[in-house]
Amino acid sequence: MVLRNWLQRHPITAALLILFLWMAITVLGSTLNSGGVQRTQIEAISAGVTWQILLAALFLLLVARWLGWRDLGFVQTNSLAALQLAWFPSLYILLFALMALIVGLPPLGFVLIVLINCLFVGLSEELMFRGILFAAFARRWPIWPAILASSLLFGAIHSLNAFGTGMLFLALLQSVAASLSGLFLIALRLRSRSLWPPIVFHAVWNFALLTAGGAAMGQVDMTEAAASVGLRQGLLAIAFQLPIALYALYLLRHIHRVRAEP
Questions:
Q1: Cα–Cα distance, 73 to 79 (Å, whole number)
Q2: What is the pLDDT of residues 45-88, one digit of tens each?
Q3: Three-state DSSP class for 200?
Q4: Which residues are listed as membrane-spanning (predicted)?
Q5: Of 10, 76, 187, 244, which is the most buried if we count CB atoms within 10 A?
Q6: Which DSSP category does 59 fall into?
Q7: CB neighbours (10 Å) of residue 34?
Q8: What is the pLDDT of residue 18?
């Protein structure tokens, strides 16, 4: 009881501690799941169901319930309005889908495993960053610092991919790109006033991208292949996210006029 009361009075400290434990569950589970063997991102997410991701999400739900945090965004929203907000990034998803259809879809088993894992990742990461972390920051800070801090931390944790792939350069590029994509995800969270739209969009985005990657490269990560040829290709991967980040800033142009806490 004493610990819970203290954490409730210090939401940012509590959220950062939760983030550390969430990362530990995710990274340790991934290491155990792979047997310590380094794999590409697509190999890791298509090798089997990533139960550690689901376990990490369940951990977040239990801790949030224990702390009595009710402002994480699990509320109903207007699905059509949320889809309209996501129209521009959805063009990318259609492009990924078209690529997969042109090249030829991967085997059904690959597609199903990737779909399940992308759903787990969407739930776990959105609950952590656009749910718990953003809500904690928004209780103490103005809206823009809360937005930027949650987006930068979202990008930073993608550097942990280096533990699984052994490619630090690629992981750093993914961190920058993820920070940019985080701006859109938080914009979708705030404009829809619900956590469900970013969860669904995150899952569909990853699924479309990884399915296209599996189709085009025979289960070799396209981003990894591009990054390996040099800095130029890596910067192109980051530039891929820039238009979406600019669109996110457009969506957030009046967000300072509302309360930070949804």
A1: 14
A2: 777 788 999 999 999 999 999 999 988 999 999 989 999 999 99
A3: helix
A4: 12-32, 44-68, 80-102, 108-129, 141-160, 166-187, 199-218, 230-252
A5: 187
A6: H
A7: 16
A8: 98
Read out DSSP for 106-118?
PPHHHHHHHHHHH
For residue 88 the two structure tokens come to 């521009």
Q: Which two tokens stand for residue 153?
A: 């931390």
pTM of the model: 0.89
DSSP state of 102: H
Give me 4's structure tokens. 């819970």
- As given in the structure block, the two tokens for residue 51 are 């139960």
> Which stretches of the chain drop beneath a pLDDT of 50?
219-230, 260-262
Q: Helices 87-103 and 242-251 meet at what angle, rounded to 10? A: 150
The count of residues in the chain is 262
CA distance 113 to 95: 21
Residue 262, domain member (yes or no): no
Its domain, for residue 108, covers: 2-257
DSSP 37: -
Q: How many CB atoms lie within 10 A of CB 61?
A: 16
HSE-CB of 128 using CA atoms within 13 angstroms: 30
Residue 113: which residues within 8 A CB-CB, separation 6 or more? 45, 46, 47, 48, 49
> Position 96: which residue type?
F
Instruction: Please report whether residue 253 resides in a domain.
Output: yes
Q: Is 129 part of any domain?
A: yes
Tally of domains in the chain: 1
Task: State the pLDDT at residue 123.
Answer: 97
CB of 91 within 8 A of CB of 205? no
Cα dihedral 215, 29, 149, 144, rounded to 10, equals 60
CA 115 to CA 45: how far, in whole Å?
9
Instruction: Report yes or no on 47 lying in a domain.
Output: yes
Question: Which pLDDT score is estimated for 222?
Answer: 42
**Residues 6 or more apart from 134 whose CB is under 8 A from it?**
146, 147, 150, 186, 189
